[in-house]
Amino acid sequence: MFINRADRSKLSEKLEDFQIRLKVVCGRQLTGSNIKPVVQVKMGKVKMKITKIRKGSSPVWNELLMYNFHESLKELYDYVVEFTVNNSRKLRSDSLIGSFKLDVGSIYDQPGKYLLKWLLLTDPDDASNSPKGYLKITVCVLGAGDQPPDESAAKDENEDDVEGNLLTPAGATLHSANFALSLFSAEDLPQMDSIAFKSMKQKIGLGGDEDVSKTSVDAYLTFKFAGKKRVTEVIKETNEPVWNERLNLPLKFPSMCDSIKLTLKDWDRVGCDDPIGSVTIPLSHISSTGEAGIGFLPTFGPSFVNFYGSPREFTQLGNSLDELNTGKASLDGEGCAYRGRAMMELLMRMDEEGAEPKPPSQPVNEEKIALVQKYMRRRQYRLVVGFESANLIRKPLERIEFEVSMGNYGNKFDCDVKLSASTTEPHNAVFDGVHYHYLAWTSKKPIMMVTSQWEDISFRLYALNLILRIIDELQDQITEVNLMVKQKEDEIEIASKIVTILDEVILNTGKKLPNPRGRTVSNQLDRRIHRQRVQMFEMISQEAKELRQNCTDAQEAIAALHDFIQRLELVSHEPQNSFPDVIIWMLSDNKRVAYTRIPAYDLLYSPERQDYCGRFCSKPCTLTLKYPTANTKSKKHYKVPAQLRIIAWLGRAKDQSNFEFHSKGDISVIQDTYETEIKLPFKGWTADGYTDITGEIPLPKSVFRCPTGWLWDGDWKINSDLASLYDTTLGHMHVVEDAFEFEMRDVGTAWQVRKVTNGKMETICDMGAIKVPSGWEWENEWTVDTKRACDEDGWEYATSDDQTVGELVWSTAEKVYHNSRKRRLVRSRVCIPLKQKTAELLEEGWEYATTMGCEFHIDPKMLDLVRRRKWSRRMVTSDDRGSAAIFQLDKSISYMFTFFCVLESDKKANKKDRHYQKIPLPKIYVVYESVWQLHLRAYIYQGRDLIAMDGDSFSDPLVLVSFLNHTARTEVQKHTLNPIWDETMMLDIKFYGDIDHLKKYCPEVSVEVFDSDDLNSLQFMGRTSVKPIVKLDQENNQTPKLEWHDITKANYTTGNVLTAFEMILVNKNDKIEMPLPPPLKPGVNLPMVPFGIRPVLQRTAIEFLIWGVRTMKPFKLLSVNSPSVLIQIGAVELRTKIIKNLKKQPNFTEPLYYIEANLPVDDLYFPPIVIRVKDNRKFGSRPTVGQHIITKSIQYRIKPPCHVEKMLKQSDITIILRLLLVKIQQLLNGTIHWLQIREEELDWWSKFYASLGDGGNCRSYMESGLDLIKVYKDELEKQEEFNHFSDFIQTFQLFRGKVENEDDEPDFAGQFKGTFRIYTLPEDSREPSPPRYFQHLPPSDVVEVKVRIYVIRAFGLAPQDANGLSDPYIKIKAGKKRI
Q1: In 832-979, where do the E strands start and end?
Q2: What membrane topology is annotated for this entry (predicted)?
């Protein structure tokens, strides 16, 4: 880049003050692998400054450096600024990465004397002068009266413009290069345009017979890099376009841009083109800046690239998720659905000198097209997903289904691929009785199977899985070591653990990675990445061996292990992963509600080695679903719509015989058809044949055939499961039916019955109207439910009118103004064993609706014209293939062509309207015969440092604990950010599943904290997950230990909770000793955390020094005039006296307070110290006007003070007097000496300059031998010896207000001055207590003082006047005084 230079002869030679401000922002593409770069900036002759050390080839510093000069502009103009980037890992001799030199004149000549540029780094000793990376800096030169520029306004509008933002050193130029993107074809593109016009043309005979949805895409691709763009031609009316086009994009290499963006778009004749999907390829994933043998130019493919975005279903008006197709909107940058994929190849070639520029677009030659065909070879893959549970469903959704898809395969709305058993049967959500809903999968759990066709890239994913396994194991082991260090365990044990970890690192890094050579679809990038990974393994193995021999410090070893993880993460990516992610969608009434994405490699099975298998292959795992949203600020980002527990397997069809979930359940396969009847006038119900669930596809029983390897097990039977879809009792043997009694009254009258409803709030005449369903019988009579928030008779009270009955806030205490009340009645029913069910049950199973498209229900109604019931027939395998026999079921997939001909009299009878319909596949289930009784105990002790959710700076927190399909909640703690719940919640759970899986892969307990507002609605505060202690046998006697867990909301911490969990197997045969019932809280019928788990308490003394408050801000437009302080430590509270007039007396007249209490021994459990300042106003109002929370109180904990002898011995007095005489003599001698040299008129400035070592200005003071002044380079607040320039008490900042999000901070409310001391007391209260810590305090009354401030001189001020100088003065504020 060329910069216009000023005429040096016109530059001023007058000495002036200048300041150069330089900011080192970041670096990119720094050469070398595993580097720790640091920037050294040399300005002028000797002024040098160094930044902090960062990691990686793209470090971020954002450090500001300032240089002051007193020079003429002509001299300053020639000063050189030298930037040097070094690798701090290496020795000084070979640490240089690159450097750049720039003179100050080049900066001074810029507009505004300001420069925001990228610097091209080179190595002066490198004969080729090749680039070594980029460094981004901002620098400005400030002279007399200059103002620093606004960096936010000075940012370049187009940061991707490389040439316009780059400074290159003299003699060095960027190499010309060319990015060649060869785009061959795309597939699986979704419908993008309306097909109404094309369908109309087909109906009038102007169109072909092809599926019009496949021709509703006019696709092209945009290729963006470094601010430049290339576009392919538009391929019209096909969802499988073929381009065979090569795009050439010239650039300067190496480029500072670190990503390539590819976007598929749909061309529109009118309006803007619509994005189909997008993908970003980081340049660091397809290239390397390492040394020779490791570094390589960007290369990619030939390989497929997957595109993601919004759901594939086309809507005429579009939807709010279309912005996901651009790849910019989502919080985590991911789309929620597969949108297609494209085959492409990307190569970078360095241009030769004098070579002609390549055209922007050109066709790919035939040889290359033929060569790419081998990369498109497909292999059959099997994906099996078993659903174990679905819980934490937030809303009572109806007809919930879960769809499993991989690419287009499994998408129930896509007719372009073969049908798969990819969607669960619809179920209604069942309320768990507390807050959430779940699906009632009990002993019969659904299994989904998807067959797909993909390229065989298993060798790529095997290597990735091996590296990810090593990283996961190493992270877990480092966590264990950190815990041992934190608990201060024996150093020998810690050292032994570290040696074991290093041995495992050496063993793991010695494992063989799959070699891509000889693989059908391997390419150059595969071989480069393989070589890079092998060398990384060798380096880590060698360093681990050296560390094992030489390391003597645990922290040094832990830091080295963290470094190993970071280096492994650099190679733990696979840019050519052409397997689409497995996506699980939750649907309700055929509408997509929530989803989760699972990388396919996490489920992949390897027949070669267990280490190559995915982390979740054939292992139960918990998945948290999320709402699809394009709004980065949406609350949907932290709301959990549902949670799934699944077990999955993905493998080649040739390896399907190895498929096994390792589960003790039996595979059951059932085929279904629906008998339908219609109601005709005068005839009643008339048979209408057998169809599928939609009523559109005829499915007579005779059409079903058993696939190879399967046999029918019995005849067709009526299946009442679908009728039970609308029954919340599905799968349970004992069910509680409920009903509600509503009463009302007028003022001064008695309560009168208003209505009676069933559990669905439908009005009934009386309790006898609730009949027991067939197959069930009543277990007891109707009783009032008093185990809820109600009075002793079960009533809840409210004030309402006829329009607001369903929206009431119910209270447990009756008031005179209440005019409505209700209570809940419950009655249990039990399922009759199958042998006792009558034959009449066979005639049941009907469900009714007005039409086939309407919602079905169980009870017949007058307007119902259609009814149906499901017939099922079970199949069993006829061979010994075990679980793998389910793969034979996909042979039953076929298409049924139904031709509807018009009347024979129609002239167009030869025209046929053809519909492709899919026969429903058999339903696959895993059936567990055993039912395990589990007992979960949740110990919720306390919370700490929660966020404020209410306007009064507090929250009303409660905790929801969820495990499998059960939820429990704590009581609400009012007006606190540090609640103490001290509750034990006990859940009895029936577990249908494999008990061995539960022991090995136990799901985590979900812990959520909510704020309860005045309307009893819950506002989310944060969540965490905790693994319970699993006790399935008598040998496990482990006692739960309370631990702190961070709760998070939208990826930032919102507090901590102290909890512990244990799960016990209640086996009827082999009794496991159950823990004793926890004790009850005094006065409250709630179990508390039992002794042995709750923190151990000890007798503790707390001394409070509450001095006063300062700078209190007004609260609700009124000034704070009469404050008092409330201090809380756990259950201990202290209230001070009131300051009557804050303006006259800001201190408390009685500052000392003393309290004895039982507090935890362990610092880990010690409650926070909460300081609340309240203002005592008229009419008894005492609002909290500010608060401060001290979470770490260890700094205030001291040893008990010792007793001091009041009387001194006579010998001690003699020694003290002799020392005083010696000191007085020394002072007299010093005074005489000072009087002698006073004659030379040495002043204070001489002493000052002598202290600085300035012999020219101190006269003969240095020869006098008098005392010198100690001059500190930093503020006294930073000096330890001055106690950070603070007085004997501390100043705490007070805050108030509600925190909405992570970026918000509570409002400043004032300051509190005081301190605390905490120490233990003897356990026996009869023993004498230690003396008080705070004694002989100065009076707290207001006194008149004089403050002397010596203003000596200032350094390095920026010039402000035209003469290059400034006229500085200082403003001093002390209290209300200003100088």
Answers
A1: 847-849, 866-877, 895-900, 913-918, 923-927, 931-944, 957-963, 966-969
A2: Single-pass type II membrane protein
